[in-house]
Amino acid sequence: MPVINYQDLIDAALDAQALEDVINGAANLNGTGIVVTRLGQELKTLAKIQSDAALNGVLATNTFGNDNRLLRSDGTNRNIQASGITIDDSNNITGVNNLTTLGDITLNSATPELIFLDSDDGLSSSLFGSSGALVLNTSSTAKDILFAANNVEKGRMTGNGYFTAKRINSGAPTAPGTPADGDINGIRYLLNGVPMALSGADDVAQLYMELSEQKSAPIDMVLGYADSFKTNTLVDLTNSVAINWVSGYISNEPTGGALIPLMTTNSAPSGTASASSSYGGGYEAYRAFDRSNSNAWMSAAGSTGILEYEFPAAVTASHYTVQCDSETTRAPNTWTFQGYNTGTSSWDTLDTRSGVSGWATNQRRFYAFASNQTYKRFRINVTAHNGGGYVKINNMQLYFGNCPVLTPMTSDTTPVGTWTYSHTYGGYSTDKLSDENNSSYWSTNVAASVGSPVWARYTLGSSLTVGRLMLGSYSSNALDAAMPRDFTLKYHNGTTWVTALTVTGITWSGGNEYKYWDLPSNVTSPTGAFELNITATNGGNVAVAEMQLYTPKVTVNADLRTVGRAQDSNPTSLDVYVLINQIDAITLGTDLKIYGTRDNGANWVEGSYQYIGHGWNGTLYKGTVNVSGQAADNRIAARVTTHNLKRIQWFAHCIKGI
């Protein structure tokens, strides 16, 4: 930028024409502006001058004021202006609007704090890009990332971004109420500008957001101190039914699966297996629950028999399976499946079957109850077999959703259904996919590509509804590269093949690995026809050890109750905040109810409801509960129930006594 000699300006100060001559002689300005300073002294003023727009001159402007004001240029106008951004003598910067950086933003203070005061969207994911990470490393005192808006729905990062909050030299408090007022040990919410803070006693549970580096744990529930849903320590599951513990939230659509553990004796590892009679050593009742095709329970004599399993506590089941071994004539033909009703001291019939014949070796048949059934004791009461002299059951299992539907196969067409394929190699046939033995595998000796996919199809021959897929790798890592990387699961809808699931970028390592995928929505094939269509592996020719399809997950009406916590005095009212994600649209007071208690759960009072706003990917509701009529017990707790089988994910709650 051109510089005019200070003395020349002094000499020309009383003569406008002389001033113009000085300016014109300084340089070819081309509209870039002129800096005027007193040499050797601290910069005090900055001027820009323009004599004529057509000549790209400059006009004098007002003094810019602050000593440390940052400057900017208007580009093609070539004006020099104050930016409005000031750096004070303590290196604090003010006046910045939007900030774009090509590098990291690092907070090195011992107590860093980042505050967002946007009244509309809270923290927008676009602030840091789709793959950024905002990390708050607090060395001593816990500080917060504050969302001062009610609506912070955009606070969750998109893509690969995530938030973390770390206290480097201090773990979580060991008892409720330990943190001081406002020391929230992480990231906190503000409601109408007021933090939901601890009171310093035992009376407040706190929303604590703990986004994991896997970016899958939205919020943990705490009662005065940080804890995770995964530890199960702060929720009274005795009063809860079939809850799915997921990283960061609770779902009333449980993963489910097999309910009876792999039994090694009639009473180990848990529960009790029993029978009306047993043939002798090696045919005890637990043999039907040891998940081995080599063992079985068999009655002592006759065509009838009862096989029972009693759980330590009541469970909810949706399906059961019965499997025979090679002695198919001893498989059940007629039976009732029952649950023991403690209220009436009698057995309730849950399912009835008759004339069940045509069993094949190791065939497993699955049956659905008309509705979910909750009992502690279940049994199969066989009143006729298929003519073999004794009743014999190789395996029996109870499921709560996710019941396997592919029976163990011994060939591509036995015992039931048919496998077909695009490619196969030698004796590595497609039936190996469903033989429930990952020491064998289906091999093709060819690679897969988008233009030349490799596929395997199973057709049951009757209607089949599926909600989950499993693939398993070989028992060693020798075939990891041959496992599918990119693939789809298709089903035949009676007219054409339809894609039910698309998966890409899957890697396998170490062998003996099983991976599961829930379908975006449940699908039904009228003929029970499903296809695994592989378009890429991780480097080898296609080889897959195991494949299984499962019935859909089952929704339950959840009843979640927190453990009572004492506080300093008896409240007359409770504020219960619940943060949930609505999978299905709900109506407060009908599909979801919020309760509170001050007598440690002896009695529950339903609250009046208020919508608060959105947080992360959930909705925050408040229930105000009048507990003044309850006994004077200072242990407060919260309870959330769902109804009408509406699906929710429960992220967190907060309870405060008033």
How would you describe what is shown here?
The chain has 658 residues and is mainly beta. Among the domains are: 6-93, no CATH class; 258-392, Jelly Rolls, CATH 2.60.120.260; 418-550, Sandwich (Jelly Rolls), CATH 2.60.120; 559-657, Jelly Rolls (Sandwich), CATH 2.60.120. Helices cover 3% and strands 38% of the residues. The protein contains 2 helices and 42 strands. The strands form 11 sheets. Strands 15, 16, 18, 19, 20, 21 and 23 form a 7-stranded antiparallel sheet that branches. Strands 12, 34, 35, 37, 38 and 41 form a 6-stranded antiparallel sheet that branches. Strand 37 (592-597) and strand 38 form a beta hairpin. Helix 1 (6-12) runs antiparallel to helix 2 (16-26). The longest helix has 11 residues, at 16-26.
Record the SSE blueprint.
Layout: H1 6-12, H2 16-26, E1 69-73, E2 80-87, E3 93-94, E4 114-116, E5 133-138, E6 145-147, E7 162-167, E8 188-191, E9 194-195, E10 206-208, E11 220-222, E12 235-236, E13 244-246, E14 249-251, E15 257-258, E16 272-275, E17 297-298, E18 305-323, E19 332-341, E20 346-353, E21 364-385, E22 392-393, E23 395-400, E24 418-421, E25 442-443, E26 454-459, E27 464-472, E28 484-492, E29 497-503, E30 514-525, E31 529-537, E32 543-544, E33 546-550, E34 559-562, E35 565-566, E36 573-582, E37 592-597, E38 605-606, E39 608-615, E40 618-626, E41 635-642, E42 648-657
Parallel strand pairs: 4-6, 5-7, 6-8
Antiparallel strand pairs: 1-2, 2-3, 8-9, 10-11, 12-34, 13-14, 14-42, 15-23, 16-18, 17-22, 18-21, 18-23, 19-20, 19-21, 24-26, 25-32, 26-31, 27-30, 27-33, 28-29, 28-31, 34-41, 35-41, 36-40, 36-42, 37-38, 37-41, 39-40
Helix pairs in contact: 1-2
